[in-house]
Amino acid sequence: MKITLFIPCYIDLCYPQVGKSIVQIFEKLGHQVECPESPACCGQPAFNTGYWEESQETAVKVLEQFRDAEVVVIPSGSCGAMIKVFYPELFEGSEYEELAKSVSSRCYEFTSFLVNRLGVIDLGARFPHKVTFHDGCHGLRELNNKLPPRVLLSKVKDLELIEMTAAEQCCGFGGTFSAKFPMISTAMGDTKCASALETGAEYITSCDSSCLMHLQGIISRRKMNIKTIHIAEILAQQ
């Protein structure tokens, strides 16, 4: 299968190792991987802030880029939900409505694609650490992506998954929310990190680097004894 990757801007700029891990995983499975250099933004910041016309200007470039893609895989529940769920709404009644629906139908979040489309649950990874999982809001509530990441983690050798009490609670990032309401955002992040620490885990993992970026900022400032890592980086370990 020819897999086209959509690498979100924050992964492209801050966490390139996540994208590299995904390429490594798919090539190991024997698939052809294509990763366009652009676009790198799905238009979600403008969309969430109410600037739909500006969001469309960015989103159109995404649609054109993926017009002929066999499948589009995204290592982010947030950006994945934007393209899969919100693009059809964003372009409803426009000349791009049908294309938005078409791209939406071929778009998958990374772990969902592995488990639900490819039927892959064991990648032969080994990660000898205690890990707890954070459910990103869009991945959980818009994509219903609760089980796939846990199924994959359950097959990682020597990994102990310890669920935190606040697994489904928002971490407080929320894109522009964290910029508009920093005090509320930080308080929510503190609650999430405290819940993770209670498990005794060494790492917080998630399908969203944006959430992990927010949590790692809090962890670093509070000097907490825990780290963050994207699930793709765990699954690429040997």
Can you give a write-up of this model?
The protein is built from 13 helices and 8 strands. The protein has 238 residues and is of the alpha/beta class. The protein has 2 domains: 2-117, Rossmann fold (3-Layer(aba) Sandwich), CATH 3.40.50; 130-235, Rossmann fold. It has a 4-stranded parallel beta sheet with strand order 2-1-3-4, with helices on both faces. Strand 7, helix 12 and strand 8 (227-230) form a beta-alpha-beta unit.
Series of secondary-structure elements, N-terminal to C-terminal: EHHEHHEHHEHEHHEHHEHEH
Q: How large a portion of the residues is in β-strands, by DSSP E?
A: 5-15%
Rg, nearest Å: 17 Å
Shape: globular
Summarize this entry quickly.
This protein has 13 helices and eight strands.
List keywords for this structure.
4-stranded parallel sheet, Rossmann fold, 238 residues, globular, 8 strands, 52% helix, alpha/beta, 2 domains, single chain
Secondary-structure map with pairings?
Elements: E1 2-5, H1 9-14, H2 16-28, E2 32-34, H3 44-49, H4 52-65, E3 71-74, H5 77-90, H6 97-105, E4 107-109, H7 110-117, E5 130-133, H8 137-141, H9 147-154, E6 160-161, H10 176-180, H11 182-198, E7 203-206, H12 209-222, E8 227-230, H13 231-235
Parallel strand pairs: 1-2, 1-3, 3-4, 5-6, 5-7, 7-8
Helix pairs in contact: 5-6, 7-9, 11-12
